[in-house]
Fold:
Amino acid sequence: AQSVAQPEDQVNVAEGNPLTVKCTYSVSGNPYLFWYVQYPNRGLQFLLKYITGDNLVKGSYGFEAEFNKSQTSFHLKKPSALVSDSALYFCAVRGAGYGNNRLAFGKGNQVVVIP
Amino acid sequence: ETGVTQTPRHLVMGMTNKKSLKCEQHLGHNAMYWYKQSAKKPLELMFVYSLEERVENNSVPSRFSPECPNSSHLFLHLHTLQPEDSALYLCASSRDRDPSYEQYFGPGTRLTVT
Structure:
């Protein structure tokens, strides 16, 4: 079974400062890793994913994430946070293999960017 | 907009009512999903459909009954629900059920069971 841990309930950061949202995962075999963002009263929006290749992946709105196999981590980063980045962020993992239908989500991190 | 719509956006129902949630995707995807989102908990996968065939039922109680008449539409029929079923119900779709494809989510239906 796959699982995701997002250790912090809330991340506070000043506008213009670097933003990091942490994620560690557990999965059998090769992981497919995803980050999604949820704004109030909205569904989840896809930000980026790691499937294979370069460990640093770039996504929407200036976000990037680094896959670290030895630490089983996939932390989300943004060099300079905006107030509009305040939202709920979810990390998700799915094991490779066509028969695996389950995308396991973490409980989410609330990001608050302070003006 | 993500190309996935859900109706209604809000629903209040009594425990003896029967209602249905509707999801429609305009992306030409072949896989569709129902999730339950409760406060402070990870998203819970409920059902997965691939080309109108149910391929996953994640131990969901029978008071939730999904229906997928075609690859663009997905329903969740509700009957005799419990107060603990109150949550945000999210529909999603993906190109197909290959795990490398990202999912696109609708805005959700906020369900309150009284």
